[in-house]
Amino acid sequence: MAIDTARLAAHVLPEIAHSYVERDAILYALGVGLGADPIDKDDLAFLYEAGLSVLPTFAVTLASPGMWIKDPAFDVDFARLVHSEQAAIFHRPLPPCADVIGSARVLSLTDRGEVKGAVLTLERTIRDASGGDAYCTLQQTLLLRGDGGFGGPAPAKAADVIPERAPDVEASFAISPRAALIYRLSGDWNPLHIAPEAAAKAGFARPILHGLASYAVAGVAVARALGRSPGDVARLACRFSGVVYPGDTIDFRIWRDVDRAVFAGFVGDRKVLDQGQIAFGGAA
Questions:
Q1: Domain housing 154
Q2: Which residues are annotated as catalytic?
Q3: Which of 31, 123, 180, 274 has fewest C-beta within 10 Å?
């Protein structure tokens, strides 16, 4: 059956309440890869409950609507769906523990054609449950690889932000072979990241790393390469252009810009993160 575009575009997602404590923020930081050196003071700031700082990207895991798009009513080919892009603005630091509310809406549904698939962008806001102040506004882009060709509008062509010159800075980040096993405990239970048979069904040699784990790694690695704390990240966006496996090393190429930096990530010769953008708040 064809994708139900009208139902998808009009779908109203319920608000989600979510409570987290220090343990959850620490587990997230471990899943991202902090703590490889257990006495690294910069890592311990995000791992030790005494004076705990919280990685800004933790916000994108909070109050998630889950696998809502898997509902058979939408007729989406869920097995072929991939998370293709992620962007977020972090309005203020997350406290070590909090009660939050997440609201979400379908921002757009566009058509790249029968072969290339459809593109759905979901906007989510994470805010404090008591005061209502926003911690994070994010956009999650899903590529529905099996659902294009429905005759909808084509997606707008985005400008290429990566310069055609040598990078200003380079950095590498080694992904733990156990990274996906730990990261999934922050709420993404998709078997693609743990079950070999699920990975094989999706066309992968073995379970792959979560896109949002690669996204968080970029926030840490690029920030530190630029002499900033990962806690200072105020905006972070990138496109997932290739698969990252647990045990890989991501090599980042970084270019400074006026009020931001842009980046791309590679595993060997394969580009796995593209069109990356990062900006900072807080003290320099």
A1: 5-280
A2: 188, 193
A3: 123
